[in-house]
Amino acid sequence: MKYSKLIFAVMALVVFVGTFVFLWRKSLPQEVKYNEFTPKRENIVKSTIITGRIEPRDEVNVKPQISGIISEIYKEAGETVKADEVIAKVKVIPEMNQLTAAQSRVRIADINLNQVKTDYERYQRLFDKELVSASEYEKIRQQYRQAQEEKVAADDALLVVSEGISRSNANASSTLIRSTISGLILDVPVKVGNSVILSNTFNEGTTIASVANMNDLIFRGNIDESEVGRIHTGMSMNITIGALQDLNFDAILEYISPKAVQSNGANQFEIKASVTIRDSVQMRSGYSANAEIVLAESQEVLSVPESAIEFSGDSTYVYVVRGDGDKKNYVRTHVVTGLSDGVKIEIKKGISEKDIIRGPQIIE
């Protein structure tokens, strides 16, 4: 029992002395150490990253020429299609007003044709007996031909309204939904049995399919107003796509919107750039992408890390090493800076490549 108390007292004394020594050493003034370096000549590139997406330049929504119900679908999303190739077929559901008007036109055409036919046959008999002049006969024959043409047109109009097809031009049937461009089918949002309507003044019509030329793609994004003044059409861009890792694509800036749009409280301007896609890459519409565009560049200029710069109002300074050993000190020196990429900054005047510059403090 006596020895255990002694051991406990010794341990307490050791802890007390150790704590005292630690605190005493911490209270001593520490030598401040800094990184030191010499300026280098480097290329400084200031660029910005624009977020956006990859889209086909030409994407069209194929719509029906007549209202009805989808009876057949011949193509699916992901298939290629040529211009004028049939995508789907519509079964016509006649609009009653149009159907009534077309039927009335057929009845009137029948009445007119029967009347003119009777007159024509009478004049023909009279002409054969030389009882009427040739001009009178030709006039009535012309009326007969016109009545025949009107009857054919009225029948065709009724057929188009009721069935969506014309006998005189069956290949151009409005019941067959054809692609207006060659390309890839991106989406077929309808199914067999769906009702569809044609585009008119009051509605946009039903989209049967979305078709795009995937060989002609663009990057679309927005750039902040603080940077839009530094870009111009024709500039090169580097495109990276998250879904296609380790691949970069070249692009050329084609369009800068003249009007700003509000986005998260900031003014931004839409840009578009044509993207060069390699044949071996399968691209999909709507891929998220980042575009890097160089705003300014300086070649082989004297530079230092921006962390070594002291900013004071409109002036900038660095600390230059003077002396050596115990006589070494840091002299605050005014410098003229130029382009910065956020990591390193151009030095135009104030120091040379031979100077040694004080960097950030070393934290031990």
Strand order of the largest sheet: 2-11-15-13-12-16
Strand content: 35-45%
* CATH structural architecture of the largest domain: Beta Barrel
Helix content range: 25-40%
How many separate helices?
A: 4
CATH homologous superfamily caption of the largest domain: RNA polymerase II/Efflux pump adaptor protein, barrel-sandwich hybrid domain
How many individual β-strands? 21
Task: Could you tell me the CATH topology label of the largest domain.
Answer: OB fold (Dihydrolipoamide Acetyltransferase, E2P)
Average pLDDT reading:
85
| Class of secondary structure makeup | alpha+beta
Main β sheet profile: 6 strands, antiparallel, barrel
Uncertain segments of ≥5 residues (pLDDT<50)? none
Any idea what the radius of gyration is? 42 Å
Query: Helices and strands, in N-to-C order?
Result: HEEEEEEHHEEEEEHEEEEEEEEEE
Shape: elongated
Straight-line distance between termini: 46 Å
- CATH class membership of the largest domain: Mainly Beta
Q: Give the assembly state of these chains.
A: single chain
Whole-number tally of structural domains? 3
